[in-house]
Design goal:
heterodimer, A: mainly alpha, MetI-like fold, 14 helices, 76% helix, B: 8-stranded mixed sheet, 6-stranded mixed sheet, 20 helices, 23 strands, globular, disordered C terminus, BPD_transp_1_N (chain A), cell membrane (chain A), MetI-like_sf (chain A), MetI-like (chain A), membrane (chain A)
Chain lengths: 314, 621
Amino acid sequence: MIKYLITRILSVIPVVGVVTAVVFGLTYLSPGDPAAVLAGDYASPAQIEAIRDRLQLDAPVFSRYLVWLGNTLQGDLGMSLFSGQPVLSLILARAEPTITLAIAATLVALIVAVPLGLLAAQRPGTIADRAVLLFCVGGMSIPAFLIGYLLIFTFGVRLGWLPVQGFAGIDKGIPEVARHVLLPAIMLGFAQTALIGRVTRASAIEVLNQDFVRVARAKGLGETAIVVRHCLRLVAVPLVTVVGTSFASMLGGVVITETVFAIPGIGRLLVEAIQRIDIPVIQGVLLVSAVVYVVINLLVDLTYLVIDPRIKYT
Amino acid sequence: MLEQPMTNAVLSVSNLVTSFRTGGGWKSVVDGVSFDIGPKETVAVVGESGSGKSVTALSIMQLNAPGLSRVDGSVKLEGRELLTLSNADMRRIRGNEIAMIFQEPMTSLNPVLSIGFQIAEALVLHRRLSHAAAEAETIRLLEKVRIPAAKSRFHEYPHRFSGGMRQRVMIAMALACKPKLLIADEPTTALDVTIQAQILQLIKELQEEGEMSVLFITHDMGVVAEIADRTVVMYKGKAIETGATEDIFKNPAQPYTRSLLSAVPKLGSMRGETRPMRFPIFDRTTGEPDETVETPDTVKGAERPVLEVAGLTKRFEISSGLFSSVKSRIHAVENVSFDVRSGETLALVGESGCGKSTTGRAIMRLIEPSSGSVQLDGVDLLKLSANDLLERRKRMQMIFQDPFASLNPRMKIGTAIAEPLIINGVANRSEARDKVADLLLRVGLSADMANRFPHEFSGGQRQRICIARALALEPRLIVADEAVSALDVSVKAQVVNLMLELQARMGLAYLFISHDMAVIERVSHRVAVMYLGEIVEIGPRAAIFQNPQHPYTKRLLAAVPIADPARRLQKRSVPNEEVRSPVRSADYIPPVRQYREVSPGHAVMVWDAEWEKMGTSGQSV
């Protein structure tokens, strides 16, 4: 078990190494000159050259990568080319909205999708089942921004119930956070709902066909007790995988949702950095996302231990 | 065939009709079945697969898929009609007044809930016990079904229990609320014979203690004879014969019952015979046997054996820890030696986990043996390179237990049979087509079936297809791993007869791996008994069956249910022992075994005092 944990934690290193190397290479290949962007429209070639010199942008990409890697290993993610602030503090400043949004969206998705999936699984082939499936297919095929604008139009503009822009920090109190986060969470959770609903349905159908469910019925248990006590934990195994992966990817920044609702999260930070070719920030965000991804996947795998007593890691 | 209705019946089923929705219409699977079960009585419903016996049981419990099935007629529990009850009322009956145990102990328990919880659940539900009281009662129940160290096992999960122990847990669960009726649907079919004997004995004892009636669903006439007071014979959804078990066994009225009873392989029926014998095939409409054909002497005693196995050993290492050090080993096959001659059948018999299948696979080099030698026609297979092995493998083929799982569902059976010919470059496509037609005829199918898919065949036909595929390369040796174990008795007889015919015609050598003593007695020339990876006794079939020496061989033979109802009332002392595990610590050095020759060709392992202590219990006392 300890060996397993050590192996898994060490496996972060190659993942992060590959991710950052690829990103470094891509930013190098992409058009645009960070020095020119930084200097502004009216800068002279000499000024641009000075900036380039100061930031050592002329050094070979490989040696720049090594320098960056060395600093990173010492906990220094560098400074933003644009604002000159430390990358780490930029990311931390944007973390709260993204984390709140990711948690809210996951909750919305779970609350809607799991009951729907279970409902469909209990009556496969019926109208209820087909309706759930249709909803799931719709959720996956309708573009998220369309749903976002529909939500804004309906609840923000026409009904005026909820704010359509911005974000409230936790210091403003939970009701205020909830008011701001609800619409983006629904938009973001919509596609997740579809995915989670389908996975729940498929997995629950499989579990409900197992011999031990028939035994539970023969015991005299009602359908609700069978689903809750005998199925839910087994359904949770594939569910945790899907939810964990999508949660991790949301933490890496949800670009479209944050843009639509003008939320100052990590996704927007990344978009801004890309527009400004702010390589240290891009690198920093991707590095943090990669680490978060690996850690969450590790947590997912550890959750299996709690859910299923047959699983043992050696 | 209807008997007088019982006045005090616990369960009274009359004119039960169960239909399933198929495509457009309703198809009846159970068609007008009636029977009564008296207090403390055991009634067996017996029939072959598809006869509707399990559906009858599920209909009584109303556990068939709702919406897709319909149950008509009447099912009365102590005079109370069950079929008209509401769902909620029916739930109060299930697990409380009628309990049920199922065939597959391995999948019948929820893997993520502790066994204690699963038993206590029924107590909390029906008897409104508090959790503490339910736990105490559950431990008492676990003790009652003779699970060792019951208290400490309350919180354990099903995967820590063997098949036999899980079936005990199932029984404890079923008996939790002291039901009036226990429905047992093939409860011992998936278990080893010695474990089967234990479970049957346990059900009998608990029935007496609990004054409970039992409805026992089975396909095994031996089990029926062992346990049932009365028997209902089902055929194609109808109860064709009902009566006291003794009467049915002695004077079966229906031809089908006669054919079913006659088809049961009987241990000891080969006394005095030297060669294997065909099973007589009984006509289902007349109940008369076909002509018996003498099996010719097929064994080529003078030639060098086709297969010579010496010192074959296979150990699986179990490693764990930081440096993956070997913590223990499974001694699956340990120093096994035997040979098989052309035209000879050597049966490898033993219970699950004894290493018989591993031996078969190691011989085929489907798994790599740890040491030893396997010579096929004098060539040591274990020393061959991968290419040479492919060449040699043509001479040996394997047939598996589950014919459906061993055929690709999307491949036409003609293609499946031709595949070995084509990949080995033995024949081109048109030659292969002719060969397939010939092979299909040889296994008793028709040539035009080549274009069908596996699901269009019955289980017996599928096994014939697998045999045809194995024969395609004209092998010298066939390893048949439980090849007839999953088949109904009558089909089993036909497939065994086919194998005997093919042996006579083609001089095949068979390594016949099975746990079924009665079939082995019929087909084999010689028998090797395996226990914990080792051969404990090997010899001519007659010597093993009529003069068994090793305590384990004796125990195995004693555990086989005998299709003779007169034995039912005898109490058998069955040792409450598990099939032991061949997992040993990493530093275990297997002892050097001595074999004693009993008579020419009959050798028995010299056993130690431990066996004497256990004795040969299992025999009638």
